[in-house]
Design brief:
187 residues, 13% strand
Length: 187
């Protein structure tokens, strides 16, 4: 495996990926204002993290285009960082690989084990942009069901993230509903 060393690059030479490199798609990530503001706070509280989560940049016309870390780049510029830690991707790297890098840099491969996250304070986890699920004890499904006869039907739609294990969630819902409301069906 080839290793690349960390390089400090003047922020004035760094550009966000807007599709200016031939064959490279523009950065597909949206930057939500609330998440962006949280990121800036996190960088201010833990600036050393940027050394460990450096940008991935590609040389282009005497400048560097962010392949990984576009949101961090914007935040660092707004916060006034003059030198930004970067890993420079070699110029001979094919556009297909660059496109893969920008997607793979943002793909969450793992899932949180929420039982282990209990060691952290919930407000800190929210500041870190971790979505904490609603505890079962605070979920009152009774308000969704009519107290009428057996013919009364109520439809509930549950929107799940793409990464969710739909079969596992369906089984949990069946179990929870049948324990509290015998005769309920989950389709």
């Amino acid at each position: 495996m080839k290793t690349t060393s960390l390089t400090l690059i003047d922020q004035s030479l760094l550009d966000n990926n807007e599709g200016q490199v031939h064959g490279l798609h523009p950065n597909p990530r949206e930057i939500d204002k609330d998440n962006f503001d949280r990121l800036k706070i996190q960088i201010q509280e833990y600036p050393e993290l940027i050394d460990y989560r450096a940008l991935m940049v590609y040389p282009h016309k005497g400048r560097y285009v962010a392949i990984g870390g576009n949101m961090r780049l914007r935040a660092l510029k707004e916060l006034g960082f003059e030198k930004i830690p970067c890993f420079i991707i070699p110029e001979e790297t094919e556009p297909e690989a660059l496109n893969a890098f920008q997607i793979l840099d943002n793909v969450p491969f793992g899932r949180w084990d929420f039982s282990k996250l209990t060691a952290w304070d919930n407000s800190q986890l929210r500041d870190f942009n971790i979505n904490i699920p609603v505890p079962e004890s605070s979920l009152n499904l009774g308000e969704f069901f009519d107290e009428g006869d057996d013919e009364t039907k109520t439809k509930i739609i549950v929107l799940l993230p793409e990464s969710a294990d739909k079969d596992e969630i369906k089984e949990q819902l069946k179990s929870q509903l049948n324990n509290n409301y015998p005769g309920c069906k989950v389709k």
